[in-house]
Amino acid sequence: MYTDVKTEDDLLGPGAKPGTVPTDLEQATGLERLEILGKMESVDIFDMRPLDASRLGKLGINRTGKCGADSRQAR
Questions:
Q1: For a disulfide at 2, which of 27, 37, 44, 45, Cβ 3.0-4.6 Å?
Q2: What residue spans of 16-59 are helical by DSSP H?
Q3: Residue 20 pLDDT
Q4: 37: exposed, middle or buried (C-beta count within 10 Å: 0-12, 13-18, 19+)?
């Protein structure tokens, strides 16, 4: 589960048993596995909601929004 992920090693799947076809969860690693685990618990890991577009920006006036970095600019 998503809440059980503590280190990068937790993002390595067990793989499929010999002679079977792996599921997406068994085969996924890294960010893809984190995203699948999050979706299983209804957590949107990458926050894919559209930016608020109710205010129009003007050339030379940057709009900032929340992100993993300090800020991002939408022009």
A1: 37
A2: 24-27, 30-40
A3: 93
A4: buried
Contact (Cβ atoms closer than 8 angstroms) between residue 1 and residue 25? no
- For residues 44 and 56, what is the distance between their CA atoms, to the nearest angstrom? 27
Tokens describing residue 64 = 């900032």
Query: Considering all CA atoms of the chain, what is the largest pairwise distance in Å, rounded to the nearest integer?
Result: 60
The answer to whether 10 and 4 are in contact (CB under 8 A) is yes
Of all helices (H) and strands (E), which one includes residue 25?
helix 24-27
Q: Which residues pair with 65 in a beta bridge?
A: 72
pLDDT per residue rounded down to tens, the chain (75 residues): 677 788 888 888 888 899 999 888 888 888 888 898 888 888 888 888 887 777 666 666 666 666 666 655 555
CB atoms within 10 A of CB 28: 18
